[in-house]
From TrEMBL:
GO terms for cellular component: cytoplasm; ribonuclease H2 complex. It holds the Pfam family RNase_HII. Residues 16-205 form the RNase H type-2 domain. The lineage of its organism: Bacteria, Pseudomonadati, Thermodesulfobacteriota, Desulfovibrionia, Desulfovibrionales. Belongs to the RNase HII family. It is found in: Cytoplasm. It comes from the Bacteria. Manganese or magnesium. Binds 1 divalent metal ion per monomer in the absence of substrate. May bind a second metal ion after substrate binding. This is Ribonuclease HII. One of its GO terms (biological process) is mismatch repair. It comes from Desulfobaculum bizertense DSM 18034. Endonuclease that specifically degrades the RNA of RNA-DNA hybrids.
Length: 212
């Protein structure tokens, strides 16, 4: 069965209008976590719509304006590194989703959340593991979250040069880790994340041979 037919079936049981919700940047060492919420009409045409991670950057950028023009409503939510460190990344991801939902110009009757964690809102909802490849509203949200965050990281690269944000978008690549070792973290880094925080130096005993 074609993917879009499967996606349509996955969303048909949800009360309308319902919003698909997804986030981007959860596993990064730097930059915010960004979520998007999207309400699509019952009938629409968005060829190639699927999980943003399965699409090339060119395809994501081509779909972004189509999603926005097709959607009945869409919203973006952002949580910055200082709040990520204060809350922890799970709570920050859920908060970014709540923020995206709250700015929708249409109040959704139901929420379809990518993953297995519900958001702390009273709106009826269902979590969908792998939902960004099953429910078109979640697929659309994944594209808006990813393209918005990528664009933001390119902007932050100009403000915080030397880390390569425009290339790796804050993920823990070899280049990024080498830049962290050379320059130390900046304000856009998540100080509580392994790879950013300065690990305690090995104890002297680890430098000795057994029995010495």
């Amino acid at each position: 069965m074609p993917l879009l037919e499967c996606e349509k079936m996955a969303g048909e049981s949800f009360p309308r209008p319902f919003a698909g919700v997804d986030e981007a940047g959860r596993g990064c060492l730097a930059g915010p976590v960004v979520a998007a919420a999207v309400i699509l009409p019952e009938s629409f045409s968005l060829p190639g719509l699927t999980d943003s991670k399965k699409l090339s950057e060119k395809k994501r950028l081509a779909l972004e304006p189509l999603v926005k023009s097709t959607a009945l409503a869409w919203g973006i939510g952002v949580v910055w590194p200082q709040d990520i460190d204060r809350m922890n990344i799970l709570r920050a991801s859920l908060e970014s989703m709540c923020r995206a939902i709250r700015v929708l110009k249409i109040h959704p009757s139901f929420l379809a959340i990518d993953g297995n964690q519900p958001v702390p809102l009273d709106t009826p909802q269902r979590t969908v593991v792998g939902g960004d490849a099953k429910v078109p509203e979640i697929s659309a949200a994944s594209i808006l979250a990813k393209t918005f965050r990528d664009r933001l990281m390119i902007h932050l690269d100009a403000r915080y040069p030397g880390y390569g944000f425009a290339v790796h978008k804050g993920y823990g690549t070899k280049v990024h880790l080498e830049a962290l070792r050379a320059h130390g973290p900046c304000r856009m880094h998540r100080m509580t994340f392994r790879g950013v925080r300065q690990e305690e130096a090995p104890k002297e005993r680890s430098l000795c041979l057994p029995g010495m």
